[in-house]
Design brief:
Strand content: 35-45%
Number of helices: 5
Structural class: mainly beta
Radius of gyration: 23 Å
CATH topology of the largest domain: Chondroitinase Ac, Chain A, domain 3
Largest sheet: 8 strands, antiparallel
Distance between the termini: 45 Å
Helix content: 10-25%
CATH architecture of the largest domain: Sandwich
Number of domains: 2
């Protein structure tokens, strides 16, 4: 009987560990335009600058309607709900990345995925919710589920070091570009068909929120997901933790997410690491939560987290109560309210 009960218990733990969000992923927004156009697209507070005849189809210049699909991921919950990995592997080491913002861009013509024409790039001015210094451009390798550096020096060991906060951002390892500058001058574009010079306003918006918006600027020449990142290599303090569920007389046995409110990164820990392998950054506000297989969320007691001195508890056993929300969370806004993000 004990063996049978143990087997059932292990099965329940395995099921509990398989989190299942009831919140949909961020959808693509589709923008349609003629391939011969110079196009400026504003997506929320971001802007996408597309030169004329920027695409190829089947190895030839493409003419016709372009269906540009675009979506962006600006905060920690975007990372979590879109199942975006934040691992970066180099020199036989795995790092966690801290993001200054991400976007995914695809272009289609006649129902087929287009490619970029030679020497043509799209300029994306990505709005930022989190300012990080020393960020670099990364592209997601979907087959491996990890990121690689899209810079000329990305494969060299010396390039895979955390950049200090005083270091300027290296978009494509271009040391001379101020990537955060939001130009207030108009850009003049010559239509290749008519020869008419047209002014495209790339800044100077009357909207004060836009004028005060910070941006990251990237030159895009692949249909892919791009990330403005730096390696998160801050001091981490090891603790032994347990997560009792309030009112249930049992411990949490599912993956927990640790989110630092001032950093755009998502760290997760499996139950097997709670006693050996759980680490926290000191002196930073954070939240901890988990999700069950049926979509219910458990959130760490905010008062306990606020009163937890991480440094003073190095190597010690810490109990962090979790409150289970009775009904499944079905929107990002609900989850943000529950977790304080």
């Amino acid at each position: 009987m004990k063996t049978k009960c143990l087997a059932i218990g292990l099965l329940l733990l395995a099921l509990q560990a398989q989190a299942q969000w009831k919140i949909p992923e961020t959808p693509f927004t589709t923008y349609a335009f003629d391939a011969k156009e110079c196009k400026v697209i504003q997506h929320q507070n971001s802007r996408i600058f597309i030169p004329s005849y920027a695409f190829y189809l089947d190895g030839k210049p493409y003419e016709g309607e372009v269906q540009l699909q675009y979506r962006q991921f600006l905060d920690q919950l975007d990372i979590l709900l879109n199942h975006i990995p934040m691992a970066y592997h180099e020199n036989d080491r795995q790092h966690t990345l801290e993001s200054g913002g991400m976007f995914e861009l695809m272009a289609y013509g006649k129902g087929k995925l287009l490619s970029f024409a030679p020497d043509k790039k799209i300029n994306v001015q990505l709005e930022k919710k989190f300012a990080i210094n020393g960020g670099e451009t990364f592209i997601l390798d979907r087959n491996k589920g990890s990121w690689y550096k899209d810079t000329p020096f990305g494969n060299q060991p010396a390039a895979n070091q955390q950049l200090p906060d005083s270091k300027a951002a290296l978009w494509g390892d271009n040391f001379w570009v101020n990537a955060d500058q939001w130009w207030s001058e108009p850009m003049w574009v010559v239509d290749p068909v008519t020869g008419v010079q047209t002014m495209q306003v790339v800044a100077g918006s009357s909207d004060m929120e836009l004028r005060n918006q910070a941006f990251s600027t990237l030159q895009v020449d692949q249909m892919a997901m791009y990330n403005v990142d730096k390696i998160l290599e801050e001091e981490r303090i090891p603790l032994m933790v347990e997560f009792p569920l309030k009112g249930k007389n049992q411990l949490l046995q599912s993956e927990v997410y640790v989110v630092y409110k001032n950093r755009n990164a998502m760290l997760s820990y499996q139950p097997s690491s709670f006693q050996n392998g759980f680490e926290l950054l000191p002196d930073e506000p954070f939240t901890i939560f988990s999700v069950s297989k049926d979509g219910k969320v458990a959130v760490a007691d905010a008062d306990v987290l606020a009163g937890l001195n991480v440094r003073n508890n190095k190597g010690k056993k810490v109990s962090i109560p979790m409150q289970v929300v009775d009904k499944p969370v079905t929107s990002k806004e609900e989850l943000a309210l529950l977790t304080g993000l």
